[in-house]
Amino acid sequence: MERDVVVSDPAAAGSSPSPSPSASSFAETRVICRVCQKQFAQYTCPRCNSRYCSLPCYKGHSLQCTESFMRENVMDELKQMQPEDESKKKMLDILKRLHLEEEMESDGEDESMLSEELIQKVMSGEEVKIEDLSDDEIKRFRQALASGELSKMIEPWTPWWKKPSARLISLSPDGSQLIRQVREEDTATSDPTTDQEPSINEIPEGPESPLPSLKQLTRVEPSPLLAIHLVDILYSYCFTLRLYNGDWHSDPLGASTVALSMSKVMGEDAKPETVPEALTACIEETCSPAYRHTGGFRFAIGLVDDIISILSLGHNALVCALSDFHRLIEAGKSMLKVEKVGKTESAQSSSKLRGATRKLFFMTCWVHEQPEEAWPPLARIVEVQKASLEELDTGSRKEDIKSRPQSKVLIEEL
């Protein structure tokens, strides 16, 4: 094992006699950075105790150190995925309840169909107000909305993280966007009195200004659970974008409300300690009566796959996703100021949105400082959990089939 290079402090050494070893202090000796061998080391790696001077040197001090640390995290997660795991028990209860509700809904499937006349109005682009509908049409409309029948009429949106251009995202070393995209409406002469809907870029832009270091934001060490909290936040982001078909600009306040209800980390200040715990809470919310119309468990599994995709894209894609999410919440906060809601409700919502923006900004800065090698192992953890969830769902469905009463044999063998 290499020894740290210790240099005597020239300020401490002079013409005066050397002090005795018992009188010497730590301030009189300094350790040279093990990586660059140029600067004095101010920090120590908590994993291998190597001394380093700055964040770049930490990121490059030992790839094996980082990889082994993340590999141990993966193994810990795999060990926790046992049949007696509380998250698995909870997920099985969710799946059983969901399957039962699906059966009950399938029994009354004919009642949820919209009338032909109402479908023609919607398809022709004619404006349909709730006041124009009869009581029976209102009932059918709400049933179709809850069942997800109306979503079939909307052209599906392709998420930006599924596009080839997502692999080409570039940001400056300080985390800010390299080039701000110039749009045609920015250069063309436009009437300032006319309101134009904001355009949706193929890839969301990164931060507009350099990201500060974590030391500028807090004096305490960041929580080791931030990687798990990131999974919760990414699930909420993907859920919200898919629910709004990629266009959260149409209703930023509604989108913000949905995002906070989905993310327990941002909405309820929860602190999940494992990836299964974080995903179970998100999936339970997705399968709840409020959001079951989105697609239930299969939709939730698709969102887990979205998380894997973004993590696999790496550092720059994560920063852009979190920046886009931050802009969404900020837009919701601005919209809340002009909405006519009660003072108490407005104050509570505003406080939650402010807290969410702070958490998102801190998470963006934290992600920016992590080494690129941190994300593949985390993506692998989520991937393993996705396979475990699909296995649970398959097993739950088989149990449901076995538990159903068997039909009587019409013709007995004599």
From TrEMBL:
Low complexity bias (residue ranges): 8-24
Biased composition (Polar residues): 189-199
Cited Gene3D superfamilies: 3.30.60.190
Ranges for domain HIT-type: 33-65
Highest taxon of the lineage: Eukaryota
PROSITE patterns, alphabetized: ZF_HIT
GO molecular function terms attached to this record: zinc ion binding
InterPro entries linked: Shq1_C, Znf_HIT, ZNHIT2
Biased composition range(s): Basic and acidic residues: 394-403
Pfam families reported for this sequence: SHQ1 (PF04925), zf-HIT (PF04438)
SUPFAM superfamilies in the record: HIT/MYND zinc finger-like (SSF144232)
Stretches for region Disordered: 1-24, 183-214, 391-414
Keywords: Metal-binding, Zinc, Zinc-finger
Protein's recorded name: HIT-type domain-containing protein
Source organism (scientific name): Panicum hallii var. hallii
Lineage: Eukaryota, Viridiplantae, Streptophyta, Embryophyta, Tracheophyta
